[in-house]
Design goal:
Strand order of the largest sheet: 3-2-5-6
Strand content: over 45%
Largest sheet: 4 strands, antiparallel
Oligomer: single chain
Low-confidence stretches: 1-39, 42-46
Distance between the termini: 180 Å
Number of domains: 5
Number of helices: 1
Shape: rod-shaped
């Protein structure tokens, strides 16, 4: 080739480079005019020229063609020129720190004067941490950001940095909810102490006698018979009080949804008592209090009957040869009362028989009828009697 011919080719090449501008640079819809221009690649000098424009969803993304760095997007655009007659280009992708590598696109070679657009998408790399949840009691259901993750204790990974909502539920317990802050690369913890749901039952109490005042846990709730509703499950103290009776108290266990039945019998206070002094005229009569034998009245003085219930009583005296006689007497609690019962003779004139022994305490039988122990004075009808003494050891 002559030097003249070589000069012509060089001038022609310079002219072509000066006027070879892609359609996107002239203001069409691709936005390629804002990109970065690079020297032509993909062929020998003198081939027909085209353009490839890359679009990225983030700025400052690095463009790689067949693994080789080409440049960086400006306003999300990078345009490179290629020779359409050059060696074919195969693939391209974009990369940026803090983002995952974009999708890889297969490239086609543009025709002379043609611009081809390719779109590459990069996604941010999410920094994540973990959340660990425990509860008392355990085996509770856990939701994080309203998504079920298992039962306690449980640890879940892959949570972005920031606040996350934790909710813990378990049958029979109140729901627990809170929020935790997750730091990238760290584990946030949540510990839930669950509170049992208050369950209620009832107590039915019927006392003997009825009409007693009822107290539940020292709070008056009414008179028996009584149904007490809305009682929290568990052990409670039940107390009953009624005038004239000893207080009654016991522990009652209430189960949820059930009724506990209580039937207490109240014990009456012991009746107050007094003392009764009884004598008869003549003495020696058999004395009965309300029909119950008490002893023999002395010839002189009075016999003493203790612990007589307060109230009105009937005292009866019986003596051979005399008509039975009864009198009413009122005994006050803590007090004393006395009564003397006069007897009317039904036979001959009466006399007295005084009987004593040494030692004393001998059993006396008159006409084989037991009369008492010595010393003893008896009122007897006039006549002759057989007197027998007996004493153990004599």
């Amino acid at each position: 080739m002559s030097s003249k011919t070589g000069s012509v080719i060089a001038l022609l090449l310079i002219a072509l480079l000066a006027i070879a501008v892609p359609a996107s640079a002239e203001g069409d819809q691709t936005g390629g005019a804002t990109g970065t221009w690079d020297v032509p690649i993909g062929g020998d000098v003198g081939g027909d020229m085209g353009w490839i424009t890359f679009h990225t969803n983030v700025d400052d993304a690095s463009i790689y063609v067949d693994g080789a760095y080409q440049g960086t997007t400006v306003n999300g655009v990078y345009t490179m020129s290629v020779y359409s007659t050059g060696a074919p280009l195969r693939s391209a992708y974009a990369a940026k720190s803090g983002y995952t590598q974009s999708n890889t696109v297969r490239l086609s070679m543009p025709s002379a004067g043609e611009n081809l657009d390719y779109y590459l998408t990069l996604n941010p790399i999410q920094s994540s941490g973990s959340i660990s949840v425990t509860s008392y009691p355990s085996n509770a259901v856990v939701y994080i950001d309203e998504i079920y993750v298992g039962t306690t204790p449980v640890t879940q990974n892959g949570y972005s940095q920031g606040y996350h909502n934790v909710r813990v539920t378990k049958s029979g317990y109140q729901e627990w909810a809170s929020s935790v802050y997750v730091y990238s690369g760290s584990t946030a913890t949540a510990s839930a102490t669950l509170t049992p749901i208050e369950s209620y039952g009832s107590i039915y109490v019927s006392s003997t006698p009825s009409g007693a005042s009822v107290y539940l846990d020292d709070k008056y709730v009414g008179n028996s018979p009584k149904t007490i509703s809305g009682v929290v499950k568990g052990a409670h103290t039940l107390k009953l009080e009624k005038s004239g009776y000893y207080p009654w108290e016991s522990s009652v266990t209430v189960n949820p949804g059930q009724t506990s039945y209580v039937y207490p019998t109240l014990q009456a206070y012991a009746a107050p008592t007094g003392t009764l002094y009884v004598s008869s005229a003549p003495g020696g009569a058999y004395i009965y209090l309300d029909g119950v034998y008490q002893g023999i009245s002395p010839v002189s003085g009075s016999m003493v009957i203790s612990n007589v219930a307060a109230g009105t009583h009937t005292v009866t005296a019986k003596l051979t040869g005399y008509q039975d006689a009864s009198l009413s007497v009122t005994v006050n609690g803590g007090g004393t009362a006395s009564v003397t019962i006069p007897l009317q003779s039904t036979g001959p004139a009466m006399g007295y028989l005084a009987v004593s022994s040494m030692p004393s305490g001998a059993n006396i039988y008159i006409n084989n009828d037991y009369k008492g122990i010595t010393p003893l004075t008896l009122s007897l009808p006039e006549g002759t009697y057989s007197v027998k003494y007996t004493l153990t050891g004599y």
